[in-house]
Structure formats: C-alpha cells, structure tokens
Amino acid sequence: MKIVIIGGGFAGLNLAKELVNHNEIQVTLVDKNNYNFFPPLIYQVATAFLEPSSISYPFRKFFAGKKNLQFRLGNLVKVNPSENKVILHNGELEYDYLVFATGAETSYFGMENVKKNSIPMKTLNDAIVMRNTLLKNLEKAAICKDKKERRKLLTIVVAGGGPTGVEVSGMFAEMRKNILLKEYPELSTTASNIYLVDGANALLSPMSKESQEDTLKAITNLGVVVKLNTTVIDYKEDTVFFGNGETIQTKNLIWAAGVTAKVFEGIPTESYGRGRRMATDAFNKVNGTENIYAIGDTCIQLTDAAFPNGHPQVAQVAIQQGINLAKNFIAMTQNKPLKPFVYNDKGSMAIIGKNKAVVDLPKPKMHFKGFFAWIIWLFIHLISLITYRNRIKTFFNWMIAYFAKDQSLRMIIRPDKKIKTQPKEV
pLDDT tens-digit profile of 9-48? Predict the structure, then answer.
C-alpha cells in the first residue's frame, strides 16, 4: 500500500508516525518546507522570546532510519485522481491512497489592502518577518524626530481575539513593561499603545464565559486596549479603518483574525464544504472520491454527533484524526473493520502573560485561571513539541525569560536579496 501525505503539520506528521515499521505500508510525506513546526508557539518566535529552531525540526532528521517513511520537498500543483497521481512543482508521485493534511492559511476576508500591508501570524516565515518588522520599527522610532510618525511606529493593532491574538497582545504588553524603556531609552517620553480588536462581543469566544471575563480583565490590566464588536474593514496609508467609523494610525497591524482552507486542482468542487474545507465521511474519506482522505484543519466532518457543524480547527482534532486514520489504514491491510472518527475534546487554554492563563476542561467541567493555569499551559505545550531537543531548548529559553524578564534573541536577521552570480566554469 502506497500512501502519499500532503502536509506535515499536526495531522500529517501524526499519521506518518503511527505508520512507522508497518512495512506493508510505504509512506511519502510531501511538504513545501523541509521542517515541521509548532504553530501554537510561533508568536514567541515573532516576539523574539524563542529561536525558530526551538519549535521546528527537519523532516529528514525525524524520518532517518524509518525504512517505510520517505520525505519529499515540493509544492502540490494538482491531483489526477483517475491516474492516482499527484503533480508537484518538481515531479510526480503515484499513490494508492492520498491524504490531504494541508492545514489552513490566513484569511483576509477579501480585503486586499489588509492582505498587502498587514503582518500575518500563521507560519514560521510569518513569525520571522514579524520579528524583523517590529524590531526595525523600534529602531526607526528611536531616531525619529516627528512625534506623530514615532507614535505610528510604536502603536500596535492586533486583529483577532482568539488565542493567538490574546497571546501576542499579552507578550507585547510584557515587552513594553520589562524591555522597551530599558533598551530604548530614547523612547521614554513617547507613549506606545497596544490595541486588541475583535468583531465578537468577547475575547476567546469558543471558551467559557469565565475564561472570557478573566482574560478581558487580565489583558486590560496589562495595559492593552480591547475593542470588541469592532471589525477591520481596511488598512491603507498607515491607518486601520473600522466598521464603526473609527480609525487608528499605525505601521503595525498584526492579522490573527481568521483562516481558510486551500482549494486544489483535481478535487471536485462538490467535495468542498464551508470555509473551503474538504467535506469527509466518518472515516475522513473526501466525499465524491474513492481513495482520497483529508484530516486536520483542511477537512470538515459532519458525522460526529457531538459536533454537527464540524470540528474546531485546533491541534487536538488534527492529532486525533491523524492517529485514527493511521489505525484505519493498518486495519485495511489486515481486513479488519474501520473505526469512525469521534473527537475527544480535552479542553482549551490560552496564555495571557507571565503567571496569567486560562484553562477550560470539559470532563469534568472545570475552569482554571492565574498561575496554576499558566503552569498547565506551559506543561501541555512543552510535552507537545515533537522532540526532546525542542522541549529542552524551549524550556531553557522559558526559564531565562521568566527569571530575567527578558531574552537576548532580538536580532534582525534577514537574507540578502541580491543573487550573486556564480563564476563560469572554465
């Protein structure tokens, strides 16, 4: 059995891991990057509290010695279902079963100016760009004589009141309190404002009311200005425009407001559901196909009785779907019955700042906040990293940041855009 997995995030990698040493199954994982990364912590890379290598790991290093697993670096161009073949930008692959685990990408809701001018928060590349942009703007502000321009350089607007928006806002507030004036004394007389805006009437809308209220209080106490029931409708000429007519001038719009799945050539239009997610049956097989599956953020499954509108696009769903699908592939080789996917909700959490977090557990229904919730958040995220190396590096950096209230990773590192001409062979 030849299985091709497109995408090496939570869903794809957990599917591949579960198939290790099942030599009757040959797995090829395709990804546009040569590394796996941990999305819940990219905001800490973006704010220079973690190195990129702390939350990422090369696929080939992970697959080394696993004889039935292979990695292929490539971008998917299209699928040819009639020939059981995928076309990559650098070649082709044949499959018996194809699995989409491509996650989701940032959605700008059709606002081209926002797409062009804002800073997204979805990939490791986004995090590095954001880090460089914010650090460069701080350096510009340090020498800027125009007060209005300096204020725009220091003002940050975070769009999206979900976990990513809350976490990055809290991190900015901690940096302003503990780092900004210490390292940038030139800015001591200039106000730096942080705004967190969301179109809903509460932060962390999928979480409990207690978590929403605790988060609003904690983030406000950190000095973040929260604007609820407020939607961004445009961003141009250093001005964020809101649906209620208000505006904020800033050079830093962080976009964490929405995601959408990707559409691929060769997959029937009728196979897509809400949010462009591939609609699947109870076993994650894409509707209208014979041997194509989808797991994680890229799929929507309406067969789980507890989630009639589809599962949330969170890491635990992706992990559990990857593991369940692996067990079903193994069952296929043994002519055993398949097991439909049923999501086991283990709860949700968000960190707000140092010693501040919220945690909701569904079974039994419990809510935690403050230091204890913060410890739970740290522990869960630490053990969820892919290797011991990642866990050790991240834990070490966290300890430094906790006791020093600082981190020494604020370097502006960017590649030279100039392409050097190779010497001609003689």
Answer: 999 999 999 999 999 999 999 999 999 999 999 999 998 8
Q: What are phi and psi of 209, to 5 degrees?
A: -60, -35
Is residue 364 reached through a cis peptide bond, with omega within 30 degrees of 0 on the bond before it?
yes
**Residue 194 host element (H or E):** strand 194-197
Q: 242, 231 in Cβ contact below 8 A?
A: yes
Mean of the pLDDT values across residues 168-182? 88
More confident call, 281 vs 411: 281
User: How many Å apart are CA 296 and CA 7, to the nearest integer?
Assistant: 10
Q: Pick the more confident residue, 98 or 362.
A: 98
* Tokens coding 220: 């406000």
Greatest extent of the chain over all pairs of C-alpha atoms, in Å: 74
pLDDT class of 423 with cuts at 50, 70, 90: very low
Contact 24, 117 (CB under 8 A): no
What amino acid is encoded at 247 in this protein? T
Over residues 47-63, the pLDDT tens digits come to 888 889 999 999 999 99
Q: Which residues are 360's β-sheet partners?
A: 348, 367
User: What residue type is assigned to position 99 of the chain?
Assistant: V
Check residue 265 and report its DSSP letter: B
Nearest to 374 by CA among 398, 396, 346: 398
Contacts of 258 (CB under 8 A, 6+ apart): 106, 107, 108, 109, 160
Residue-level pLDDT at 410 = 78
Please give the sequence-ordered ranges of beta strands (E in DSSP) within 287-332, or none if there are none: 292-294, 299-301
Sign of CA pseudo-dihedral 382, 385, 391, 397:
negative
- Report DSSP letters for 337-380, one per residue: -----------EEEEEETTEEEEEEETTEEEEEHHHHHHHHHHH
Show the beta-strand stretches assigned E in 112-188: 119-120, 156-159
Torsion sign across C-alpha atoms 318, 322, 323, 328: positive
CA triplet 217, 256, 389: central angle to 5 degrees?
95
Torsion of CA 228, 231, 235, 237, to 10 degrees: -60
| H-helix or E-strand spanning residue 11 | helix 10-18
- Rounded to a whole number of angstroms, the CA Rg of the chain reads 23
> How many Å apart are CA 277 and CA 275, to the nearest integer?
5
d(CA 182, CA 390) in angstroms, rounded, equals: 30
Dihedral of CA atoms 83, 89, 90, 95 in degrees, nearest 10, equals: -30
